[in-house]
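We modelled the chain as a single entity of 369 amino acids. Its sequence is:
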Amino acid sequence: MEGEIRSVPGAALRAAATFADNMPDAVYRQLVSQANAGLPAMYRYLKLRKKLLGIKDELQYYDIYPTMFKEPADERFTVADSERIGLDVTAAYGPEYVALLKKGFDGRWMDVLPRTGKAGGAYMEGAAYDVHPFLHLNHNYDYQALSTFVHEWGHAVHTQFTTASQPYENSNYSTFIAETASITNEMLLNDYMVAHARNDQEKLYYLGQGLELLRATFFRQTMFAEFQLALHEELEKGNALSGQRMSEIYCGLLKKYHGEAQGVMKIDPAYCTEWEYIPHFYYGFYVWQYATSMAGAASFADAIEREGKPASERFITMLKAGNSDYAYNLYKKAGLDMASPEPYQALLARMNHIMDQIDSIEAATSTHK
């Protein structure tokens, strides 16, 4: 009928959001399914956090923010330190990667230090195909700055690979691949820092940082993704979505992901409206890409550390592919099926392994007190 307004089914909205990457809906659903299956790891993390922070009463939602381990007092990473460590960490990829990273450092492609009037944050701009990547950083000499440094340079080397290997029309790349390229660097860095820690307290700090990365980027972002999925499934059922109904859905997910029914954390109803101010929800189906990319990164980091050269070559080949194929196909060529449980299980295994190490150090420390 002329002038009639028709609602768009949720499945159609998801299909529209994933169309550019030709990403199967099964990947989205597998992510949510595996995160739900992995919630015992999340609950274990929350119980560990409560113990380490010495919280006697019920764990509250705001308790996820304090740092579990104190940052080493003498830890300071200059830009030169970050470059040196970045080269050490990425040596796992082989000499081709290291050569491109050195080229970037020598080329002075980054605006690295904060100053008055400079925009905050960090990002890599690689749109100048026939020039080189540009990096915007605000290095403040702590571990977070170091981790951001290797993350953004992961994007820059990825851009160099695609520029050298692909014509302009295929030189762009999917967010799914881009974030795996940078988060793998962060995971290898974290493993490197744990391995080179000078004492148990320093090791605990880096383990805690690695654990928090997994909690915040995998479980929190997947919770957001499940919220968006639930909203569109409501539309598919023909139900109306009011602010109150959206808060009810979000509240249910907060309680599930933080184990209220299991006695892990008490969710104050005030947090049930948190969804209102999270900007990612206004970008369409967006947040799930980070969680999926992190699962891919966990798989690659594990494979590179176990297998060495064969795994690093698969990783580099994927980075060189640019936009010559869809991201899902590129992952499969590199040995990962993102619609299968394996990548997500690799991430959960990493999370549990970190907590095993923390428990072991804490137990040994208690024994010697």
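As a brief sanity check on the tokenised model: Residues 295 and 349 are 11 Å apart (CA to CA). Residues 200-236 form the longest helix (37 residues).
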